[in-house]
Amino acid sequence: MGLAGPPEWLNEAEALLLIHGLSYNRGTGKPDYALGSARLHRAGDGKLRIDNVSKNPFLTPDSFKELFGEQSVELRPEERRAVYLCGARPSYSNNNGVKELAEIILYPSIGDTRTIEAVLRVPEIIGSWDRSS
């Protein structure tokens, strides 16, 4: 697991982290490289810690079957299936004069051959966070 971009701060204590990781796909017999999320939390003492790591990725190699069908988008299909994050930018909304992070516009590379634009809606990600700590 590793960072796929800088933290996007939601408030003084919480930031959304985009992360990447590998998992073994039993169906294909290959590793899948996918994108997920986590929370970066600043405690009262100023120390940072990561929690709320997504159990399931939000972008996987299978996320794009509707766009590309069954045609291969993998540069190295014999080795792995991959989604890499090539870039991202925040998109904010104005809620009664308060600027809030609403979406993150992602630029993932699918299979090392194509880059597209995808939208990650922040409330859908952070809505499941455990914020008890």
Description:
The chain is mainly beta and 133 residues long. It is built from 2 helices and 9 strands, in the order βββββαββββα. It has one domain: 5 Propeller (Tachylectin-2, Chain A), CATH 2.115.10.20. Strands 1, 2, 3, 4, 5, 6, 7, 8 and 9 form a 9-stranded mixed β-sheet that branches. It is globular.
Shape: globular
In terms of structural class, how would the helical and strand content be classed? mainly beta
Number of domains: 1
| Terminal residue distance | 23 Å
Look at the structure and name the CATH superfamily.
Glycosyl hydrolase domain, family 43
CATH architecture classification: 5 Propeller
Note the main sheet. Answer: 9 strands, mixed
Please state the CA-atom Rg, rounded to the nearest Å. 16 Å
**Residue share in helices?**
under 10%
Total of DSSP H or I helical runs spanning 4+ residues = 2
Order of helices and strands: EEEEEHEEEEH
User: What fold name goes in the CATH topology slot?
Assistant: Tachylectin-2, Chain A
Share of β-strand residues: over 45%
Average the pLDDT over all residues and give the rounded result. Answer: 87
What is the CATH level 1 assignment? Mainly Beta
Low-confidence stretches: none
Q: Number of DSSP strands?
A: 9
